[in-house]
Design a protein that fits this description.
The protein contains 9 helices and no strands. By secondary structure, the chain is mainly α.
């Protein structure tokens, strides 16, 4: 699973946003007032959201894999130190095992130490590269344990248990919030069903009323209004789902993307 650098995410945001703005400008100059205008604006939004949603999701999976392997790493360190190894030696030995994406970061750290970088500097560099909340909390504790000397394994054992408990609590929180995310999806699809039903059973029939035809919106105007409402509902509903499920608005981009595409296809085929 690749690591997504912050620079890559920023460049992706800039390029995708510039592409979306370019599509909207061309759309405004060429298709303003036509039926194709709304669809091109919609695809411009997709072009802006899609790359960032994918990168955000990949970065989330990478960070999650890092945190999930921390308890295994600490258990290995404790076992290595019980055999008489120093802390740097224990970390070097641990880098030979498989800890998912954490293994590559450990190997980078051991290479830096072999080049003459101090253990503390290499560990701080590791924390800066990985930059997850749990790693940022544990790196200072490892450094202090290394400075204190003595039986350092007594520090790592409770630290590993603390991280394991934190991961279990986070998993429990995601399990508890999953029904609320499902409610957002269900509410959106109920909204889609309602507007499709209204359009087919009621609004289309107003075209057959000549006495009211000049005073009311045409079916095409109503269709465009429903399309706008669907896009807004899908985009912001997805952001709320991401905030509730994973704690960040950026995590909701994938939900926004899924809901917007589902809404577009539903209106395209049934409206």
């Amino acid at each position: 699973m690749p690591k997504i650098e912050g620079k890559t995410k920023r460049i992706t945001w800039i390029v995708s946003t510039a592409l979306a703005v370019g599509i909207i400008l061309v759309d405004f100059l060429v298709f303003w007032g036509t039926a194709a205008f709304d669809e091109l604006v919609f695809f411009a939004i997709i072009a802006a959201v899609f790359p960032s949603a994918i990168l955000t999701y990949l970065d989330y999976r990478w960070r999650k894999a890092i945190d999930e392997h921390l308890p295994d790493l600490f258990r290995s360190i404790v076992q290595a130190q019980e055999t008489g190894m120093t802390l740097p030696q224990a970390l070097e030995e641990a880098s030979k095992r498989d800890y998912g994406p954490l293994t590559a970061e450990l190997r980078k750290m051991t290479v830096q130490i072999s080049w003459g970088v101090s253990f503390e500097e290499a560990l701080l560099a590791l924390g800066k590269r990985v930059n997850t909340v749990l790693v940022q909390r544990t790196v200072p504790m490892i450094i202090e344990a290394s400075r204190s000397g003595g039986r350092v394994e007594k520090v790592f054992d409770p630290m590993g248990k603390f991280i394991q408990t934190t991961l279990l609590l986070d998993k429990e929180r995601r399990t508890q919030t999953r029904p609320y995310i499902a409610i957002i999806y269900v509410a959106f699809f109920v909204f889609l069903f309602t507007i499709i039903l209204l359009f087919k059973s009621f609004f289309v029939s107003i075209e057959q009323l000549p006495t009211l035809g000049t005073a009311l919106m045409t079916p095409e105007d109503i269709r465009r209004l429903f399309f706008h409402m669907t896009v807004v509902q899908a985009f912001f509903g997805g952001l709320v789902a991401g905030k509730m499920g994973e704690g960040t608005i950026n995590a909701g981009l994938k939900h926004s993307l899924i809901l917007m595409l589902c809404g577009y296809l539903a209106l395209k085929f049934f409206l």
